[in-house]
Amino acid sequence: MVSREQKRAVLHEKLQLLRSMTNSHALNKTSIIVDASKYIKELKQKVERLNEDIANAETSSQQPQLPVVTVETLEKGFLINVFSDKSCPGLLVSILEAFEDLGLNVLEARVSCTDNFRLQAFGGENEEEGDMIDSQVIKQAVVQAVKNWNESNNDG
C-alpha cells in the first residue's frame, strides 16, 4: 500500500514537471495548473494558425501562377517582357490586342511558346494618336490582358 507521503511526493514531482514544461514560474498548485491551461490554449491556437497556413498554401499552390510582366522605358519606346514557366496558348493574342488598344506599335518582338511562354517586345507609340503612353499604363494593360486570358482559360 502506497503511503500518503509517497502520493504527495509523486504529485509534487508531476506538478514540477508540468511547471517546467509550461515555463510556469508559479509556486502553488493552482497557479501551476492555471498556467498549464493557458499554455495549452496557446498551443491550440498555434495549431489552428498552422493548419490555416497549410490550407492557404495548398490552395495557393493549386492556383496557377500568372506570367510575370515587366515594362522598361527606353529612349524611343518601351521594352515589354512577359514570362511564364509553362506554355500559355492564346496569351500572345491577348497581349497583342492590349497593345493595339493602347495604340502601341510593336516594332520588334521575340516570342517562345513551346515549353514556356516568353515574349520580349520593343514597342513605340503610335505617332498619329499623339497621346504619350506611360510605362505603368502599358504594364497595367498587359497584366489585365494576362488576367483576362487566365480567367477565360479557367472558365473553359
From TrEMBL:
Subcellular localization, per the record? Answer: Nucleus
> Where does the chain cross the membrane?
none
Keyword annotations from UniProtKB, A to Z = Coiled coil, DNA-binding, Nucleus, Transcription, Transcription regulation
Residue ranges annotated for the Plant bHLH transcription factor ACT-like domain, each copy included: 69-147
Question: Mind listing the GO molecular function terms for this protein?
Answer: DNA-binding transcription factor activity; protein dimerization activity; sequence-specific DNA binding
Q: What is its main location?
A: nucleus
Q: Which InterPro entries match?
A: bHLH-TF_ACT-like_plant, HLH_DNA-bd_sf, TF_AMS/ICE1/BHLH6-like
- Biological source species: Rhodamnia argentea
Protein name from the UniProt record = Transcription factor SCREAM2-like isoform X2
Coiled coil, from the record:
33-60
A cellular component term from Gene Ontology for this protein is: nucleus
Pfam families xrefs: bHLH-TF_ACT-like_plant
